[in-house]
Request: fold
Amino acid sequence: LMPRYWIPFAGVSAVNDSVVIQASTSGFDPLKEHLYSLAVEWDFGLSRANYAAQYVNGVTGWNYLFSATRVTSYLVSKDFPVVNDTLSALVQ
Reply:
């Protein structure tokens, strides 16, 4: 279940005149019964973190998927950020 890679990324956002640093990874066991992915970023303009995480468990006859995300933006000014959190679960 150890991460297989890390992908760092840094960019300049034209929307809010900010620097955004991101990293992402994923991993799985040899039988691919447990899979996960994770992406995180820090927005220096908003001073906020965003993330997306996902885990899939396929050990049983049913597949279980759990995910969580946070997306931060703003409507009028960077001083008033809007934070959208999402948690979800799926059984298939």
Observations:
- The beta strands are 7-13, 18-28, 34-43, 48-57, 64-74, 81-91.
- DSSP finds no helices and six strands in the chain.
- The longest strand covers residues 18-28.
- The mean pLDDT is 84.
